[in-house]
Design brief:
By secondary structure, this protein is of the alpha/beta class. Helices cover 40% and strands 21% of the residues. Pfam families: HTH_24, ROK.
Length: 382
């Protein structure tokens, strides 16, 4: 008897659940997989056999607590690539296959103003740990993409503007990673790579001209035309965070006054907190605003109005088809996006209703990681 539609749907859902659990853990035994998915051991065993035959999963045998165990990983027939996102306050790293499917990933916090040597040493250590988790070795890594929160000069490999990443000036980031890991590496701005990822596989896929803004600890952006980022002569194209919206405004870390980042970056938002809220950090503002706190909600809404003003000025020059807002601040969704749209529509050039839509990114805070993986894959000769 052929399976009914509901049985088929359940089987596909169980397969997807199994693959996602394997991807999340990197390497996991069948017994652990049953616990992680809530499926019965017999169901997991059958799914693993089916997906192994299909080339989706791979199995090996290991000894756990003195007993033989079936170790399950994602199949990787053409080697692996690595995506790294060295953010302002965190490090994310992922292994992926050349189709950009993530095999395993890990993240950890970083101290403020972390220095290049220590952070890249830590990234190399995490990579070794991930390779161990999936039963791979460094010889299977074919390329690495690194996302950092600053524009990268394509000629030197250094950050294009000194001072944006203290402790990283004068460092050829891709070369430094290549020395540590021993395989080809490429580096790019995290906002640029996030925008490209959204254009290729996220909310903006198929849209010809896209303006992406990443609202995180810093503010960055990129214009993506036909899937290609427009980064300019020094790699600094799209730096909307350093467009002045008030020439008499606060001093920005870039040395100018009134930059968008000086109004809506993490330091600017936390500086608005009154004494009773002084224990909160940037992440707390976002979570408290999402939970309904009126003061934090107002801070986010005011940030949205400033972002909308800057986006309107940018679009008056660029006339794009879609505007995408990503980064941690966009995790507040309509608390941010509603005032962004209102301010944008008030200040944009053109007839009412003719402005491009302003939407949240689909890939969330991991968009730069996806972009870094894409950067590594694009450098491969498959």
């Amino acid at each position: 008897m052929r399976p009914t539609g509901s049985q088929t749907s359940l089987r596909e859902a169980n397969r997807a659940l199994t693959v996602e659990a394997v991807r999340r853990h990197g390497g996991i035994t069948q017994v652990e997989l049953a616990g992680a998915t809530g499926l019965s051991p017999a169901t997991v065993s059958n799914i693993v056999k089916e997906l192994t035959a299909a080339g989706t999963l791979a199995v090996s045998y290991a000894v756990r607590n003195g007993r033989r165990a079936v170790q399950v990983t994602l199949a990787r027939g053409n080697g692996l690539v690595v995506g790294m996102h060295v953010g302002t306050r965190h490090l994310r790293i992922a292994l992926a296959d050349p189709s950009s499917s993530i095999v395993a990933e890990h993240h950890m916090p970083l101290a403020p103003d972390h220095y290049a040597d220590a952070s890249l040493d830590r990234a190399a250590f995490l990579l070794d740990d991930l390779l161990d988790r999936v039963g791979a070795d460094s010889g299977e890594v074919r390329g690495i993409g690194i996302a950092v929160p600053a524009p990268i000069d394509p000629e030197t490999g250094h950050t294009a503007v000194p001072g944006l990443m203290r402790g990283w000036d004068g460092v050829d980031i891709a070369h430094a990673v290549q020395q540590r890991v021993g395989c080809p590496a490429s580096a790019g701005n995290d906002a640029t790579l996030a925008g490209v990822a959204e254009a290729h596989t996220g909310v903006a896929r198929g849209i010809p001209n896209v303006l992406y803004l990443r609202a995180s600890h810093g503010i960055g952006g990129v214009v993506v035309r036909g899937g290609t980022p427009q980064i300019g002569r020094r790699g600094a194209g799209g730096e909307i965070g350093h467009v002045s919206i008030d020439p008499d405004g606060p001093l920005c870390r870039c040395g100018n006054r009134g930059c968008l980042e000086s109004f809506v970056g993490a330091a600017a938002l936390t500086a608005q907190l009154p004494a009773a809220y002084s224990h909160l950090n940037y992440a707390d503002i976002i979570s408290e605003a999402s939970a309904g706190d009126p003061l934090c909600g107002r801070i986010v809404a005011d940030a949205g109005r400033h972002i909308g003003l800057a986006l309107a000025s940018a679009n008056n020059l660029l006339d794009v088809d879609l505007i995408v807002v990503g980064g941690e601040l966009a995790e507040t969704r309509e608390l941010l996006l509603s005032p962004v749209r209102h301010s944008f529509e008030r200040n944009a050039f053109g007839a009412v209703g003719s402005a491009p839509a302003v939407v949240a990114g689909e890939l969330g805070v991991r968009a730069p990681l996806h972009g870094a993986i894409g950067l590594a894959v694009s450098a491969l000769a498959i």
